[in-house]
Amino acid sequence: MTASDYRKDFPLLQNEDTIYIDNAATAQRPQAVLDAVKVFYETENANPLRGFYPLSLKATESCENARATVRDFIHATSKKEIIFTRNTTEGLNLVAYSYGLSHLKAGDEIAVTIMEHHSNLLPWQMVARQTGAELKFMECETDGTLTDETIQTVINEKTKLVAVAQVSNVLGCVNPIEKIVARAHEVGAVVVMDGAQSVPHMPVDVQKLDVDFMAFSGHKLMGPMGIGVLYGRKVLLEEMPPFLTGGEMIDSVTREGAVFAELPYKFEAGTVNAAGAAGLAAAIDYLNQVNFDFIQEQELALTQRAMEGLAKVPHVHVMGSEDPANHTGIISFTVEGVHPHDVSEILASDGIDVRAGHHCAQPLLTYLGVHSSTRASFMFYNTLDEVDAFVKSVASIRRRMGYEE
Predict the structure, then answer these.
(1) What is the architecture of the domain spanning 291-400?
(2) Mind listing the pLDDT tens digit for each residue in 45-71?
(3) Kind plus residue range of the DSSP H or E element containing 299
(4) Can you give the residue ranges of the Aminotransferase class V domain (predicted)?
(5) Where are the domains of the chain?
(6) Strands 19-20 and 352-353: what pairing?
(7) Is 322 exposed, middle or buried (0-12, 13-18, 19+ CB in 10 A)?
(8) Angle CA(290)–CA(292)–CA(296) in degrees, nearest 5?
(9) What architecture (CATH level 2) is domain 33-287?
(10) What is the mean pLDDT of the chain?
(11) What confidence score (pLDDT) does residue 405 get?
(12) Segments in the chain below pLDDT 50
């Protein structure tokens, strides 16, 4: 199977006028995912966990089968460790509010990398403000490298929580999670990992990584929008209070209070996105069918072709490592004298979809001395021809903006 073969599975990609390379923001959906959502609403649509009639039981079974699929996909030990959320952001906020506010205090430190997406930074700023804990930053090299010295120094005996993305959504670099976890656990801290950019592109084993929490979004791995996952170590989740309260997350309620449901349901207040869960399971099944060996090989080939092409274009600067293997399909770049929004609009006029701005990682861009950038991000269904068209369009930008080349 080639990228062109897999493209046939994606209805939106049949539009030949669109070159979609904004996959770090959201991926396209294969027909199998669209069908799974459609099947749920046509044949299983009832409130899961609420009724004992056949349709509700079928909806419940669909939800729990999806939970088992996620458990196996990330190698968790139990379905009880898999909590359905709306997205990565909600999962990280759940940990911040439920674990952070109840476990941190004045004098404690929270270690984060300068590369974090705002979703894995703002919740910890909130926790620091409300508890008196202090936020400490692990600053990277210009290529995204976190040195051993930085890890050892910033994560110290005062550190109680470490928040880190496995893959930067700007630089594409893969952070040394094993080293970070080892140091964090050495000093008694827990690790919260943002897996939004890693789970769709590489095998992720939460047991091998030994992280305490990990969140990711369904829509970035070709699943529906509005469904995400928080993995949490069972012993930690059991001691945490609920994030949201209301229907379904209770065992019993009196006038005076409530007894909350067991894991994972105490963290799933209200009606869960059962159709989204079915679509997420279908997306995981599809990814497994494609297999990560092919995915990583194809995305590396695309990244290498793009970086080689951009290197030949004057006044274009790629952020991060010079090695395509350290980009995980993500290329953020600037064009001298041209605002990234203009770059994006010119590319869009050529039918090429990219992202421009600070990519919800403003502290990182400020640290690197870049106000904003343009980002192209590839998925295995992209082709070398699309990369060539992208590079050709970038090469024309300064001329089209009135610069003499």
Answers:
(1) Alpha-Beta Complex (3.90)
(2) 999 987 889 999 999 999 999 999 999
(3) helix 292-311
(4) 19-390
(5) 33-287, 291-400
(6) parallel
(7) exposed
(8) 115
(9) 3-Layer(aba) Sandwich (3.40)
(10) 97
(11) 59
(12) none
